Amino acid sequence: MTLGSEWKFSQVFGEQTPGDDIQDCDILSAMEFDKNGDHLAVGDQGGRVIIFERQTGKEGLFDSSSRRDSGQFSLPLWQHPEFKYKTEFQSHEPEFDYLKSVEIEEKINKIRWCTKLNRSLFLLTANDRTIKLWKIKEQKVKKVKQMDINPFVTSENSLLADKSFMSGQSEPSHANGTRLEWTDKMNGTLPSHLADITNVASRRCRRVYAHAHDFNINSISNNSDGETFLSGDDLRINVWNLEVRDQCFNIIDMKPNNMEDLTEVITSAEFHPFHCNLLAYSSSRGFIRLVDMRKSALCDHSVKILQDGGSRGPKTLFSEIITSISDMKYAMDGRHILSRDYMTLKLWDTHMDTSPVATYKIHEHLRPKLSKLYTNDAIFDKFDCCLNGDGLQFATGSYSNHLRIFSCGAENEDGITLEVRKSPNRKPTSQATTRPRRSSLSNLTRGFYRQGQDSSENEISCNLKSKLLHLAWHPTHNLIACSVGSSLFMYHA
């Protein structure tokens, strides 16, 4: 699929009408497709997780039998998956750490799917301090049908008194010519002609991984071995076994003896897609470090550091802030890494550590307005990034609900810009007033932080309150899911 292909609106869930107020707890904060693209999990600031599943009613087009062994769909390119609501559950609740006098929000920071087992779905969800493993399983439930009551059976007692019900033996017909016949013996189930069978998704928390992070969790990533996963906060990265909830192994610890000596923090971490011993993590200084866990038990000394040598120059008040990497993703080939900082989207080759392969400018027109963005805290916004299955197209978000899509090697370096909205001519809806920004460690390390202040946004040529922060690319189709406030939008090409 080339970049010139037309991207079209596909679906929207939870669309807000003009003038509706959006509650803080309803704002979406994380999303993730599973490996096959059959399910999409979305988390919000209220601690809820909503699961969507791909529709299979269109003549079986998306049944598992239509996939090749490689996991790709044997479908024409013009066909695209459509999703429907499956279930939702409350994953996290607000807590209070009495030892540190810290309020822990229920907001879902990260969601990651685990290996599917015996038709059961497993996923990890995390808030600032706690990670949970959830199991979602479909169960067949029988519901009693609505039936016309036999006028000659006037009560439950008269039905139970009938010998044909108690013993299953055939009895002579009643005087009215009717017979109480039960085709199934009552072994704890209802007869099929008396019940409707429906599929209900049950969910259960299998593990709780807690008390291992002193700072806000910003990353969780499953290992290709299917047994372990990592969790990262501002200063540490831990490795867990999925079956062990009360022990983890700390592989990276950047906490200095004196916190005044702190110069950078971890912003994102992810395992290699198929080498279980390799991982990468990014920092607030714009570096990406590649780690091989076979080198040593404590991986503070990285194997290789990827840094943009072309960005060296005079440091300004804001240059260190905008170089902080907010998100990082491995391509499926395991060689390339996509990263997003405040102003740019960068594609890295792990064999080249001096500069990125390509740099895409997201909202360069805001560079002269960095002081205004700092005043109203917009400069600290953290945007996600994502790649398509073959690693040749990339996407990220911007302000005014803009979705930016780029292609590797395309002549048009500006890519494609879409305004994420079902009705493009509709006036922008007012976003909810977000909570006061809490002082995060990543902000304090730069020495720049203060409470957001009201400023004139008329001088900035975009709507800073309407921002597209979170998005995910379907693993096998050109379908992008992205969130705007409390709404989930999908676009396809």
From TrEMBL:
Any single GO CC term annotated in Swiss-Prot or TrEMBL for this entry: cytosol
Any one GO molecular function term: protein phosphatase regulator activity
TM spans (from-to): none
Domain of life: Eukaryota
Alphabetic keyword roster: Repeat, WD repeat
Function: The B regulatory subunit may modulate substrate selectivity and catalytic activity, and may also direct the localization of the catalytic enzyme to a particular subcellular compartment.
PANTHER family per the UniProt record, alphabetical: PROTEIN PHOSPHATASE PP2A REGULATORY SUBUNIT B (PTHR11871)
Family statement: Belongs to the phosphatase 2A regulatory subunit B family.
The protein, known as: Serine/threonine-protein phosphatase 2A 55 kDa regulatory subunit B
UniProt organism field: Nicotiana tabacum
Organism classification: Eukaryota, Viridiplantae, Streptophyta, Embryophyta, Tracheophyta
